[in-house]
Amino acid sequence: MGAAAGEGAATGSGPVGVIAGGGMLPLEVAEAIEAAGGRVVVAGIDGEADLVLRRPDARSFRWGQIGGAIDLMASRGVHDLVFVGTITRRPDFRSLRLDAGTLRRLPRILQALVGGDDGVVRKVLKLIEAEGFHVRGIGEVAPALLAAEGPLGRLGADDDQIEDARFAMAALAALGPYDVGQAAVVMQRRIVALEAAEGTDRMLARVAELRQLGRVSTKGGGVLVKRAKPGQDLRTELPTIGPATVAAAAAAKLAGIVIEAGRTIIADRQETIAQADRAGLFLVGLPGEGDAA
Amino acid sequence: MGAAAGEGAATGSGPVGVIAGGGMLPLEVAEAIEAAGGRVVVAGIDGEADLVLRRPDARSFRWGQIGGAIDLMASRGVHDLVFVGTITRRPDFRSLRLDAGTLRRLPRILQALVGGDDGVVRKVLKLIEAEGFHVRGIGEVAPALLAAEGPLGRLGADDDQIEDARFAMAALAALGPYDVGQAAVVMQRRIVALEAAEGTDRMLARVAELRQLGRVSTKGGGVLVKRAKPGQDLRTELPTIGPATVAAAAAAKLAGIVIEAGRTIIADRQETIAQADRAGLFLVGLPGEGDAA
User: Fold this and answer.
1) HSE on the CB side for A176, CA within 13 Å?
2) pTM for the full model?
3) Strand B240-241 and strand B265-266: pairing?
4) On chain A, which terminus has fewer CB atoms closer than 10 Å, C or N?
5) How far apart are CA A24 and CA A131, in angstroms?
6) CB-based burial of residue B41 (10 Å sphere; 0-12 exposed, 13-18 middle, 19+ buried)?
7) pLDDT tens per residue, range B48-75
8) What pLDDT is attached to residue B293?
């Protein structure tokens, strides 16, 4: 993972600015930076970043005050910014003129940095970068959150399941140039679901539905596979799993989850792994490179 | 299209045996064969093949009597068999020991001919072929049902929409080796949905849902793209559209539909095109070859 982090990994000199939404991940990112000897300045979005805002040093801000949050970062000597966490409420972006759909999840901002096609977001990021900040990826500032290789919980995958996972990883790799396909569900070398705009949890809900309809084997089994794009680096929005992913995979009666080692983020790691163990699902990290179509 | 039909196109000597499920397509296949100077022997599945069974020459059979239907074909001098039409009820396959899920749609039988992984279906097809029959594809025996190139209805696609369609066609082509990806929905070079086991209509229902949720542009627009696998020949199960496809695309507020010319079947062509015209959707045939990843 050290090699994959590339040049400019982690913090450099000053503290890392964490612009935070909801969920455990912002807290974990801040703690991982600190555990690695770095410092953070945390600004959490009012009404979203409840967990991270329990940190006494965290400031909250409303969407309309994002300029103030940026000013705070500058005054604290921040150069590296990371956007992390979920957004559940439609923000009021009239002041910023951003597309609310695009910003539903803050990490999507990062997509704009690597060729995402939303001109408005790119413009905002350019403004931020023009003020002297570097927008970093979670995998870059907090590599400890990336999945390791091998079984991450109690259970492992058998050879046939690993073969399934490699098959799906290769299919997703083939989609890389088209900027789609972060996840798939595969059963005996048959890909039964491919993720696009719906996100992983909805894709898994669909598999549960297809089982009930008898469109896929009603017996259970199959693997959720998540991977980054081939060549995708840690500065960009990486595939992420968490407890909700495990719950959705269990509801779809899958046998387990295979994620790309070194380039997938596990949010709420302890609970995610514990939940996989409880549900009897394997959770395995597998290298994703070298498998183009 | 003549070249794509390959050797052994259409009927050869005897009549073509049409084993029929529901929908207009079995009727259209039979009529297309006759319009091209061929003859047919039609056997329709009881309770499914209502439309084709209006033909006075059509025989009906229950799933348990499929052996009798095959015998009928042999007694009439049939060598070429085509399986066509939809199956809505779970057939009673105890006698045949087939997987009901696999046979939900009869055309899937054909997949087994080209490397499908269902050993049982392949075994049944081998039995049928061992009796001296050749199982043919719809595109092979009824090439008149294949989509032509260019606008098929009143409306055409603009350059930007064609560019979107080419982008999605290339992405689907990249999935060809993985035997998945007969359809996608694309909006401004962003692929928002990829079809796997759910089928096209469910994928389109998902796009309608994602619009309501604001996960894709709520303004409407976007293109449904369907194509065969690169190199897929007319003997295999080809992508098919019909009035239900158009209705689902309209409900998803798409701008139109692009299908691969020469390798996509249009069921109930007149109604399909009329419905696209009424809904204000373009329906365009586009060549699909030469666009590998």
Assistant:
1) 20
2) 0.83
3) parallel
4) N
5) 29
6) buried
7) 899 999 999 999 987 666 777 888 898 9
8) 38
pLDDT at B175 (0 to 100): 95
Q: Supply the pLDDT for residue B108.
A: 44
Quote the pLDDT of residue B64: 62
Strands A134-136 and A150-151: unpaired
Supply the DSSP symbol for A63: G
Per-residue pLDDT reduced to its tens digit, B216-231: 888 889 999 999 988 8
Give contacts of B188 with chain A, Cβ < 8 Å: 117
Smallest Cβ distance to A197: which of B171, B177, B215? Answer: B215
Residue A35 CB neighbours (<10 A): 11
* Mutation to test the B interface, candidates A179, A198, A210, most B Cβ within 10 Å: A198
In chain A, which residues have pLDDT < 50? 1-11, 92-120, 291-293
Residue A56, chain B, CB below 8 Å: the answer is no
Nearest residue of chain A to residue B199 (CA atoms) = A215
Contact list, A202 vs chain B (CB under 8 Å): 206
Name which of A174, A178, A215 is nearest B101 (Cβ-Cβ).
A215
Cite the beta strand spans of chain A per DSSP E: 16-20, 40-45, 59-61, 80-84, 134-136, 150-151, 183-187, 190-194, 223-226, 240-241, 256-260, 265-266, 282-286
For A104, nearest residue in chain B (alpha carbons)? B215
Q: What is the DSSP string of A191-256?
A: EEEE-STT-HHHHHHHHHHHHHTTSS-TT---EEEE-PPTT--TTS---EE-HHHHHHHHHTT-SE
